[in-house]
Every structure is written in C-alpha cells, then in structure tokens.
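About this split. The held-out portion is used to measure sequence recovery: a designer receives only the structure tokens and must propose an amino acid at every position. Recovery is the fraction of positions where the proposal matches the reference. Here is one held-out target exactly as it appears in the evaluation file.
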C-alpha cells in the first residue's frame, strides 16, 4: 500500500502520517507540501491513496483533482480539510471521501476501509475507445483518441476531432465528466484539451500563456492562469 500525504503544514502532515502508520504499519507513505510536489510525486510513482489538503499554498486542492486522476486513473483521493463546508464539494468532484482536522482515528479507519472495499468490489475497467456524439440529428461514434479539443460554443460544445467538427448541446462540464480519467484536461473554463495532441505552449501578452493543438495551427487557445503550472507538469515542460 503506497500513500501520499499532501499538506502545506508540516505538523498536520506528521500527525496524519503517524495515525495512518498506526492503522497500516506496512504502508509506504510519501509527503508533499504543495500542489507542484503532488504532481511530481504522481508523475514518478503509483499511489493507491492520496490524502490531499484543499487549502495548499500554491494551488487549491480542488483544482488538482482532475490532474491527479488523469495521471493515475486508479488512485483514490481523499480530501483533507479543516472546514466542513468542503464536504459537499468533495462529493461533487467525485473523490472517495474527506477527513476533517483535527484527525480522528476512527474516521480515518472508516475512510481506509471504504477505499479498500471499492478496490475489491470495482476492478478497473478498460477505458472506452469511442464516444457517442449527437449532432445534427445523427449519432456519430468518434474514436476518443481522435478528439483534439472541445470548446464552449453557443449553448453547447464544439468537438474538434482531427478535421471533423461536431456541435452538441451538452455543456463542457458534461464532456469533462464523460472523458474523466483519460488524457483530457480542462485547461481553461472554455476549453477541454487532449494532452496527447498539444503541439506547443508559448507566452502570450503579459504573464499569460497559450497553446496550439496538432492539426489546428491557426487556432490559438488561451490557458487559464490558474492552470498553467498544472498543465506544464502534466506535459513535462
């Protein structure tokens, strides 16, 4: 069992690690003190569970969830927070559970049992290779690997798939959920991109960055300022 504890407060990390080792003496536990450290750990080794503090110094833990799931589709993510109002957000983001500070060993034990039960009951399924798109009164089955990027368009989405374009009246958030755990990343409120199709990332204006996607050299897509660091980590640049 390999566990990551991500928290910008050293005492909180130490206390959580201590309690986890009392419950799981054989566990290997790695620590990180910020979002960048979380991404570095996730990119270097596989984890079974990541305990992720919501209020990190460099980036909000809720922003990291999709990035970590993209890097490690099978990982269980548990939010760590001192504020009970984040409990609802934890379930909206479909993480496994949350634990409150100060830590309660019985609560931790319950969360760990839940994670183990889900691993046993839900073996990882092979990701789908095609996706159904309802466009212009037809249902098109497009290979997911062909989708380059999806953007908000009118009251729906425009799907750009290697030369083909489809309009569907679904929100970008719905597509983000449908493609969760695959090679896609919401790098801007209006754009969901296929990480495998990024051609280049470059500066644009004052303290801003943009990118181009393969096959769409004339389209310059802005990167959300709060997503630049995470995107660079995902792309290894």
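Reference sequence for scoring:
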């Amino acid at each position: 069992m390999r566990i990551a504890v991500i928290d910008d407060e050293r005492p909180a990390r130490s206390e959580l690690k201590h309690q986890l080792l009392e419950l799981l003496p054989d566990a290997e536990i790695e620590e990180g003190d910020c979002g960048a450290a979380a991404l570095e750990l996730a990119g270097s080794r596989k984890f079974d569970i990541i305990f992720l503090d919501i209020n990190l110094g460099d980036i909000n833990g809720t922003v990291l969830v999709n990035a970590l799931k993209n890097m490690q589709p099978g990982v269980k993510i548990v939010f760590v927070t001192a504020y009970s109002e984040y409990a609802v957000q934890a379930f909206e983001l479909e993480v496994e559970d949350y634990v409150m500070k100060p830590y309660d060993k019985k609560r931790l034990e319950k969360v760990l049992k839940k994670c183990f039960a889900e691993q046993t009951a839900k073996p990882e399924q092979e990701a789908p290779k095609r996706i159904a798109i309802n466009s212009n009164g037809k249902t098109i089955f497009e290979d997911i690997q062909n989708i380059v990027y999806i953007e908000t368009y009118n009251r729906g989405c425009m799907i750009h798939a290697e030369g083909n374009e489809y309009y569907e009246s679904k929100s970008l958030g719905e597509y983000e959920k449908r493609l969760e755990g695959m090679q896609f990343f919401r790098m801007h409120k209006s754009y969901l991109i296929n990480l495998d199709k990024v051609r280049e990332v470059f500066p644009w204006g004052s303290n801003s960055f943009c990118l181009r996607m393969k096959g769409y050299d004339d389209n310059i897509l802005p990167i959300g300022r709060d997503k630049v660091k995470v995107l660079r980590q995902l792309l290894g640049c």
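Annotator remark: The CA atoms of residues 128 and 144 lie 8 Å apart.
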